[in-house]
């Protein structure tokens, strides 16, 4: 997927993509150079971060129930080709999927490969790997409730032994549930 780099074209593109995703009845994922960043931590150098740019992506994720799949590798897979004093790096490339897709591919990893011969690092989507689960904060996905094992998994996790402060116990039990 390639998102337009020009501000004047972004709203129409993201409205179009939102409509396509909302009409989709199957599991979906979007990956590529989306040409937007989520927040100021995804940019190094250049002009100050513009809040409206982050809002585009945040609203898309909120309105679709999408999950940013995270990544391994360099944090900013795009860079301009200017000298050091004018050098800019951004997290323009990413993968976003819905809960059904995440359940279908629980061991997914997005990898930012080294930048070579381009201003973008290639991104690799590995759907089979060693990771136990996606590296995103715990959230209950409604699609899990359709599984016959859902109640048993939650009961086992919350009835398991855990030590520490109340906060530590809560985090451990959420971690057990996520496994």
TrEMBL record:
<dbReference type="InterPro" id="IPR005135">
    <property type="entry name" value="Endo/exonuclease/phosphatase"/>
</dbReference>
<dbReference type="GO" id="GO:0003824">
    <property type="term" value="F:catalytic activity"/>
</dbReference>
<dbReference type="Pfam" id="PF03372">
    <property type="entry name" value="Exo_endo_phos"/>
</dbReference>
<dbReference type="InterPro" id="IPR036691">
    <property type="entry name" value="Endo/exonu/phosph_ase_sf"/>
</dbReference>
<protein>
    <recommendedName>
        <fullName>Endonuclease/exonuclease/phosphatase domain-containing protein</fullName>
    </recommendedName>
</protein>
<feature type="domain" description="Endonuclease/exonuclease/phosphatase">
    <location>
        <begin position="5"/>
        <end position="120"/>
    </location>
</feature>
């Amino acid at each position: 997927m390639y998102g337009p780099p020009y501000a004047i074209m972004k709203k129409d593109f993201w409205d179009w993509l939102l409509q396509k995703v909302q009409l989709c009845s199957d599991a979906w994922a979007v990956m590529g150079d989306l040409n937007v960043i989520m927040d100021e931590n995804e940019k190094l150098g250049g002009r100050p971060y513009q809040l409206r740019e982050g809002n585009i992506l945040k609203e898309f994720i909120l309105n679709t129930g999408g999950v940013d799949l995270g990544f391994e590798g360099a944090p900013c897979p795009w860079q301009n080709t200017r000298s050091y004093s004018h050098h800019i790096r951004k997290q323009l490339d990413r993968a976003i999927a819905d809960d059904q897709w995440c359940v279908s591919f629980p061991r997914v990893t997005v990898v930012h490969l080294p930048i070579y011969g381009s201003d973008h690092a290639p991104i690799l989507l590995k759907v089979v790997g060693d990771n136990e689960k996606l590296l995103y904060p715990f959230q209950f996905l409604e699609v899990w409730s359709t599984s016959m094992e859902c109640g048993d998994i939650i009961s086992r996790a919350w009835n398991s032994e855990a030590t520490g402060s109340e906060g530590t116990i809560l985090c451990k039990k959420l971690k057990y549930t996520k496994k």
